Amino acid sequence: RTSAAESTSSSHLAESTSSAQGEAAPPSPDLVALLAAVNGDERLVESIERHRFGESAEALCARFARARAGSLPKALAMLRRDMERREERGFADLRAMSAAQVLSLSPSRDGSDGG
């Protein structure tokens, strides 16, 4: 059974963008275009919902729209690659782990075992 967060409809991203903006400036054309493209891909919407953690879906998409401003295909490809990597590396599973468990997953950068 899917949760309410996982069953995000395509109108949800657009509605929450406008309500989150409130009296602020409207979202950039790059963000609007990226949200429209994301909404057309239910699998990507579900991945974003699974991996956005405390960040809103709109804020997450806005970062990718800004990073590849003026190029919707590049922003969308970058977002998809990031979501695929998060999925491959099990980022969603990290939420259920303690800080000590998360830190024990990766050896230290200097090659020592921390002891």
Summarize the structure.
The chain has 115 residues and is mostly helical.
Structure explained in plain terms:
The chain has 115 residues and is mostly helical. It has one domain (10-104). It has six helices and no strands. The longest helix is centred in the C-terminal third of the chain and has 17 residues, at 72-88. The relative contact order is 0.12. Residues 1-28 are annotated as: Disordered. Residues 1-20 have a biased composition (Low complexity). InterPro entries: CRAL/TRIO_N_dom_sf.
How would the blueprint of this fold be written?
Layout: H1 10-21, H2 29-39, H3 42-51, H4 57-67, H5 72-88, H6 99-104
Helix pairs in contact: 1-2, 2-4, 3-5, 4-5
InterPro entries: CRAL/TRIO_N_dom_sf
Biased composition (Low complexity): 1-20
Region (Disordered): 1-28
Q: What is the N-to-C order of secondary-structure elements (H for helix, E for strand)?
A: HHHHHH
* Main sheet specs: none
**Number of DSSP helical runs:** 6
List how many beta strands DSSP finds: 0
Helix residue percentage: 55-70%
Number of domains: 1
Q: Name the structural class.
A: mainly alpha
Low-pLDDT sequence parts: 1-11, 15-19
Radius of gyration using CA atoms only = 17 Å
